[in-house]
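Explain the record.
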Amino acid sequence: MDEDVPVDPNASETIQWRRDASTSRLVRLLWSLGVGTFFAMIAIIAFWRLYDVAAQGGVGSVVVAAVAAIAVTILVLAVDPRAERRLERVATALSISVSSERSLERAVDAAVGTLAMAVVIGGLMGAGRIVSEGDALGDVGAGPFTLLAAFTLPVALLALVLASFLSSRGALDTDEGVLYLADPDQAIDLEVIVGVSTRQVGGAAIVGLTYAQPGGQYVPGPRRIVVPRDVADEVERVAATA
């Protein structure tokens, strides 16, 4: 049974969880590298365009210095535990509205991912150029390196898909036997669940849900969710007694 139902966060029988880039290192890493790859591709193309124009005017070193300064700034933000607060103060000084500290964390993660993937992709492209000019691989040339650089795009897309799949937010009302999920908002009566299977993945569990079909009627709802281990155990216990 699916319907939008509010959850009482003060209810003692309600177990809440949130698994996203803010609470899971794996989700954070996948999201950062996934988004960073796409931004890195754009940044590399923009850099070479800008550098080419600047080099013709004899100021190519200025562009290189500016990019190096940006890279150092990102590294400093990555290791600074108060980076979000500093960014919030800068945004306030510039009259830029910031929705939450979490959005600043995601911005830093995206910047770090962009820098990391720019180094990887740029390194592959640079290695390909060196090999091509030195004729080290004969007729093959820079092909393998270019292919690897291009292959980072589908890998990045896969990383984003995995980050989305491994993310979840919701609550389990053990008294009412209802599983609440967010994004999209759903309320699932555990009485319609006839089977629960779990597979441990690190600190989380992939929970497979099998629904009853009364009168052959399809029961909407997620067939797989990713939740913390203790939540998975509780879902299995409550579903068995519902």
User: Anything to note?
Assistant: The first strand starts at residue 14 and ends at 19. Residues 1-12 have pLDDT under 50 and may be disordered.
